[in-house]
Amino acid sequence: MTLIAIGINYNTAPVSIRERLAFPADVLNTALQQLLQTKPIQEAAILSTCNRTEFYCQSEVNDKQVLINWIAQSRQLDPQDFTPYLYTYEDNHFIRHIFRVACGLDSMILGEPQILGQMKTAYQAANDAGTLGKYLGKLFQHTFSAAKKVRTDTAIGSSPVSVAFAAVQLAQQIFDKLSEQTALLIGAGETIELTARHLHQQGIGHIIIANRTFDKAHTLAAQFNGYAIALSELPDHLAEADIVVSSTASQLPILGKGLLESAIKKRKHKPIFMVDLAVPRDIEAEVAQLKDVYLYTVDDLQNTINENMNSRRQAAEQAEDIIDTQVETFLGWLRSQGAQSTIKDYRFQADAIRAQMLQKSLAQLSKGDDPEAVLTRLAHSLTNKLIHTPSAQIREAGINERPDLVAAAREIFKLKPQS
Questions:
Q1: CA angle at 170 for the pair 245 and 109, rounded to the nearest 5°
Q2: What is the pTM of this model?
């Protein structure tokens, strides 16, 4: 039995390759069932995200080429198109890899938490497809436990390492309840989308998206129950905003000191928290002089992010120690499975002897034999039957000068020297 993982990620393959090996959710069920029909694969799961696609399998034999051929056929690719970008992990290396992935130690952003949710989605998809068995099913459950322990026992995910997340966390420190605040986001690019997503997850009260292209702003705002405005409408809506985050490609400032002074008057000097993530800046530097405005630039946040990255690296070292322990625990479980068939056979043999001796004793009782004598004979005969074969084997080991087997017998049966 072999556990094997094959995959590509942001480190090994460009997006042009990653997108060709991606498995969208609507084809995952069928793909998993087809993969399971490929001999000698017995269990299978697929993790597919924008940054990685990985195939997790339990197989009768160690033959990664079977899996590579299936990937090529499924994605209608020549194996030469993607094999140079593949990595492979087997058995204990596979176990360590899946633990590290789930903990965010193999992510583009160290310690990012989204991958654990994506891993759980992969598990659920494989479970729904019926492609999980004893080994991968147990491995996934242990993976989730390991990731939870890393999150609980280290600070791997406690410090923001993206400007969008750092901006939202700073807003949380300034406002007691984001649910009572309105956020005005200027721009509609990736940074603003990520900021909107973080704000939405933290329960922001209202979101307004302002962008030069109204349709793009509307599409983004609709995802987070917000509404869109054109940049030309900023003067009419700025006073509504408790939080302003701006990230555009404009070469000139969009928000000036005069516009902010007017908005502050309309707000009756209720403070505004502002974050300028643009380079060149979207907000005039003079805005920081206003008493009721708290303005932060991308440089302010970057200093925090750099400190937090150092903190995450230290936490990652602690996480690796935890993973070492968790890998050994799972390997111990795997090794124990090799003994299960022996335990099962031993129990079957003992049950057969018990049934035979019990039947004989019941027959004696039905003939009217003395119950006490029958029970005494049963106890004596059952003991002799159960210890006969082990005793003969230990005696044979002594004759053949096998002290290792004799010592193993003493350990298995927990024998103490007789005085």
A1: 85
A2: 0.63
